[in-house]
Design brief:
6 helices; alpha+beta; 229 residues; 4-stranded antiparallel sheet; 6 strands; elongated
């Protein structure tokens, strides 16, 4: 899964790398011209990209459009713990305070489940249905923690309560535009039928080169700084 900010950042990085490669090639050509008795009278060819406009089609990956800022180990751990606290209070209205020994056991089980959940989320080789994975682990969490509330309720009502709480806590925050997951592969873009998912990134890139400049400090020392040409 790649986010919009990562994709745009990679494009800018590759354009910068292309400029570096072009300058290195220009340097080699300049040396060749200087050493050639005939070519040294000609100007050295050098292509500069002053302004570049790119129009790049991408699609919003709605399957994975879940707030990525929540999908961290600590974030997942907190969501699970808070969901249990809410559920315990709900089913133990007359005595809502969780005993310390239960808290410790729940935190241990929560941490282990959160680690497995985040490991699946961050698996680079898997194409993951994140909302489906959230629900799957929410059900698993309900089954794992049910023994701590079984004296006051049954599994089905406990699961029906805690699973929506977990899903809501993961999904309630809106994803910022730069964190939206996008589809960029040509083959996958061709398979998209819903054109509402398609967007076009319009990038205008201007060549603002930088050069080293020597500045004199108040104490008389000098330092090298990068400034725009």
């Amino acid at each position: 899964m790649i986010t919009l900010k990562d994709y745009i950042g990679n494009i800018q990085k590759e354009i910068t790398n292309a400029r570096v490669q072009a300058d290195l090639e220009t340097l080699l050509i300049a040396k060749e011209y200087a050493n050639n008795p005939l070519l040294k009278h000609f100007s050295v060819p050098n292509i500069r990209m002053k302004d570049v406009e790119l129009n790049i089609p991408v699609a919003i990956d709605r399957v994975n459009a879940t707030p990525v800022n929540k999908l961290t180990l600590e974030g997942a751990n907190n969501v699970y713990i808070k969901s249990f606290q809410k559920a315990y209070t709900y089913f133990n209205a007359t005595n809502p305070e969780i005993p310390r020994e239960i808290n410790l056991q729940v935190e241990e089980k929560t941490r282990a489940l959160a680690e497995r959940f985040i490991a699946e989320i961050n698996n680079p080789r898997a194409r993951i249905d994140i909302p489906g994975l959230i629900e799957s682990y929410a059900i698993r969490y309900a089954e794992t923690t049910f023994p701590f509330v079984e004296k006051t309720t049954r599994l089905e009502p406990y699961q029906n309560y805690i699973v929506p709480v977990i899903k809501n806590d993961f999904e309630k925050d809106e994803t910022s535009i730069e964190d939206i997951p996008v589809i960029v592969e040509t083959l996958r873009l061709k398979e998209i039928n819903d054109r509402e998912n398609m967007i076009t990134i319009k990038m205008n890139i201007r060549d603002d080169a930088m050069e080293w400049s020597t500045e004199t400090n108040e104490d008389g020392s000098t330092s090298q700084v990068l400034i725009y040409e």
